[in-house]
Amino acid sequence: MADLGAILTAIITPFDAAGAVDEEAFVALMAHLAAHGSDGFVVCGTTGEAPTLNDDEHLGLIELAVRERPEGCSIVAGVGSNDTRHAVHFTSRACELGADALLSVNPYYNRPNRRGVIAHFREVAAAADRPIILYNIPQRTGSDMPNDLLAELAQLDHVSAVKQANNENLALVDGLDLYAGNDDVLARTLDLGGAGGILVASHIVGPEMRRMVDEPAERAAIDAGLQDVYTALGVGPASMTTKAALNLLGHRVGIPRLPLVEADAAETATIRAMLEARGLLEPAGA
To answer: Which of 135, 221, 252, 279 is least crowded, fewest Cβ atoms below 10 Å from its Cβ?
Structure first.
């Protein structure tokens, strides 16, 4: 497994006023995040609104991220699909475009059985020539990949890690590096000896999350101090709340694409209050 880093931000996809991908804003955001604790980026993941990107936008963002990455940062390309042929296509193209690793979710909606999941990832692995991070997120896919299945998938070539977003499954698995799939278990993952996390709150509090890696003796206290961030960003879908926070902080990221909607007044007020309480934003009227 290549050293991808510990703090991997599942980067949002900025859109301009017309709803098109804002490439300039995306590159600027990568630079900002790299200067504030991120070791690398997961591009075209769920938080990046991959379900609403067409293939040209999806692959174009991966190409842009690889070309414009800040020095020393890794790029993990989201290549998952519930259509194996589509996942194989994304996997092959992301490798050609120079991504350092691939993030591949188990098929959603059609929910294959265990044999189907194994067959799916066998095809994906055959199309890859670099590390694959499995993504287990049953609240979105409708089915769980238990740890014994993950261990079986680890026997496939290139399958090297798991982004574990089922907190009940959080454990080391033979043959796989472990990445926290939810911000609130980064500390637990690191305590277990995991590689790090694929995170959303690192858009806002990247330096503190970096400290959780670098200062293990302070990890529990730092984690306790970030609960308000996790709560505020949890008032709606991650793409929506993260964009609201970034816009308040002066970053040009636009609003989500439908079916996600812009944060409403109450949601924005909750996010603003968190940013103000942390000293990241001047109180309104100050």
So the answer is: 279
